[in-house]
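Worked example
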Amino acid sequence: MKKTQTKFWFYIVAVLIPVLFFVLLELSLRIFNYGYDNREWVPITKDELILNPNIAKRYFNVVKSLPYSIQDVFDKKKKKGAFRVFVLGGSSAAGYPYMPLGSFSRYLQQRYEMIYPQTKIEIINIAMTAVNTYTIRDLLPGVLEQKPDAILIYAGHNEFYGALGVGSMESLGKSRTVVNLLLYLKKFKTFELLSDVINAIGKIFSSGKSNLSHGTLMSRMAKNKFIPLNSQTFNAGVEQFEGNLSDILEEIHEAKVPVVIGTLVSNYKDQKPFVSKKVGDLPSANEIYGNALKEYDAGSYNKADSLFKYAKDLDMLRFRAPEVFNNVIRKLSKKYGAKLISFDSLFAANSPHGIVGNNLITDHLHPTLHGYQLMGDAFARALLGMKIHPHGLMIKYPLKARHLFTVKYFKFSKLDSVIAKYRIKLLKNDYPYINPKDKKPLSILIRPKDIVDSVAFDFLMNEFTWEKAHRILADYYLAKGEVNKFLKYMDILITQYPIIKSYYPMVTKVLLEHHRYDDSYRYFKKYHEIAPNAYNTKWMGIIALSHKNWKEAIVDLNESLKYNDDDPQVLYNLAGAYVMKKDYRTAKELTVKALSINPNYIDAKNLLGELNRALRK
């Protein structure tokens, strides 16, 4: 009996020792901050979070220039009454080439803020370029932990060549089970250490030569470039997409979070196939594309539409999702009760003869700004139909007017437009649009004509950040005395980075100098929300008083005194508010206090005289 017990404990200890070793190793690596920060969310301020800018390291092992999200900030602790929606997907969901401002998520943010001005709106877009459903599936548990009111998904174009896709340079194989297991293990420092050791050994025996830091990300990601329709690799990509998307929608369904998913759109008419070759019994993509053009010119638009889509599916370079992906999206949305938006039908309805081309697509699949706004409107309508919307004070615009007003006042600048135009030029100056040998020098491709063009070009050449590019133009227009243009660029910066406190005093200082007090009010109010102080509430009170709104003025000016109780200007204006209220005794007490701080305050002296006369009556 004792011998049996001894053997039992021997096996238990034998198992526990390596387990304990790895637990201690993992804890030690975390304590000493080994490697990169692999958390999903990182603090950007004490109370706010952002998607980790380094999160893409989980999915990219070879490519050096990593993608990142458009840096949406949200509260660490969701505020009561806040409306929180997450957006998941690839570069189209992120808004390429108009990033960070042109995405449908930015449209939704501005639309909801216009309709619900007193509600905290958080449309959090964590989509990234060159990622696919592996990334979405991996990030989803962390998204669900943030208690979203809804999740929006637009994904599928990167399934073959995006990170970990079956035809990608970043592939880990075709087994979904293996890839998803490795992604799970990548969250542990011990696995990161092991990977680093293996990579270090690999570098010793490698030539050290790599072309993965040159060209566009699109041109670098396609490893298994040619994937014929219905081939083994093609079918593996379809299985990968369907399996991962099924996991994603099932997990969201089990969490009881509403989800909206859209079908995929591509440029059918104006983007000819990238790679055309006759394989087996299938015709070549170029042959079918040529037939589609003939049918289009002959006015047979339905037949042309079918042929254009078939030509796209025959294209052996799979940068555009095949039509079977939309069938998968429709099937799984029905299975898991997800709200479906048929974007392919929506774009067709807004295209000449119902065939999508350059009218709504900038390149082969990324929508134009108008296209993104159509998507934003469709998402908003879908959520409304599901009775999912912010709560609180609502400005009751008609449904159509909500879209028109959002588009009219959409925060977007000439600089953002030029940056997008240059991004597309650079994209089309590389594989697969042209032979890399035929690439044009940038000096010929892009020729800046004015300050906006020059700043856009320098930004794309990594001379400075997007934020600095907009500040340069804001300062430029301010120096020229064009205050409205200065405000336009500052508004864009505040829209993108509302937590940067220095923007607000920069704007209010200029507006006060130009006596534009009413315009300055919203900046004081917004600044006060993130950094309450005496100066903000002082001017909010003064502006309210100028409109004879003494109730609001009393609240704001009294709050200002809580931060600084010896500002004679605040006391004087608060006295003025009480005069409007006809509370002359309180007004006199405040005026006397103002004069005790500044005996030479002429306006206060004059007010005190008037109050004394009023009180003697």
Notes: The longest helix spans residues 2-31.
